[in-house]
């Protein structure tokens, strides 16, 4: 460790001590009326045995977490190693686990192929479909089917991809297929599962090659993918974006270059969300005459934040840690002539995670203010989450960005954040080293924390779902009722659906939130019981078939979720 890093570590330890005092109510938080408005942290598990590089939530409300199978020793062993055999490098340590938030229990899983920097999606039937990686895993497709006992584990198909996929991105599609886009030095996309001979085809996408800065400096890996309301796919790489008709392999439109002179994708590693889709009465109830002409009146807007200047990774590998970007851009991708609306975050940030909250706000969390993604090439962790309120006007006196209570744990390269079903944020991982290193500048982190957004401090406003009628299996355009209880008079009630994403490397694949069209909200016989009339999305273009978490939101405060299935 050089002198500069030693100084940085000393300063960081001082800051950790300061924040630790604050988080333990020694900085006057009991008497500060604004403290509850900044959220709070709770340690869920000191160690899950592995560092959380990749994560997904299944419909049984259990997380599947994994790092990479060639990371060497982890801190959790495979059960019955003599029966299970060992990993490809001869160790008998687990590199994947199942985590139950309700019990905080951890179960070791066995993954044989190398999952390093891979991608994934949740299929329409609730199975984690996980693709690519490194070495013997770069052509693999892996499946994890949820179960309520301890008998399920990874199923791996070593050669189910048509080409090598490392740092690729996935998205669930309206027809139930999953598209796999890009990867290191791969300028194609393909579909899985491969149920017909035509599925083996590779589709060349020149955009992926054009957005690469150089052979050594890519800045277009893990491209951002968002399904537009017309069924086409928004693809963003580096600082440019297109709308892709993936069926015809045709670029429908080119969007303006994102301003700022900043690269937004890996290893510069900004992050992106599709802002909540608000389903109007006409879009939720109208008849769609043809599947080739889906509902198009829904406005879709993309938000992209953070990243670094394009040469930052090269400089960081030579010991020069460039300040990351503090800019965000919004683009309404459904407008005829869209333009980027730029704004500034309170912090410079690379490797941040953006999580859609059930009330439509966005949490920006994790990351560093200098350097990039990569092995030990980031400095100055950003400990403070930031709440972004997209519905606040940019000209309003109310700020769109709100700085929240800091964590005491740095979450840098290979960290994750994910929405829990109780509306908190699960935060884990961080390992900027090739192997687990607990005495480095920013040590390998095996813990899981939960961050409670400010809305959870308004307990009396919080609804509790009591029923979904006629049931939790819902058809497109169906009218259904959601019952809930609330201790106080309800106000501005919304019902939202949140798709379960696959998250890694600051990219939350298939993350999606829909604000459903509402009918009447009526009080039932009991003064605290209510029922809301709700309309399901009209088509699979708005909501690809599959599992979603349904939340009732009262005055900006969400309930605990109930899982539903749309088909």
TrEMBL record:
Signal peptide, first to last residue: 1-27
A Pfam family hit: Glyoxal_oxid_N
Organism the protein comes from: Stephania yunnanensis
Domain Glyoxal oxidase N-terminal: 53-455
Domain Galactose oxidase-like Early set positions: 462-566
Protein name: Galactose oxidase
Domain of life of the native organism: Eukaryota
UniProt cross-references to InterPro entries, sorted A to Z: Gal_Oxase/kelch_b-propeller, Gal_Oxidase_central_sf, Glyoxal_oxidase_N, GO-like_E_set, Ig-like_fold, Ig_E-set
Keywords: Signal
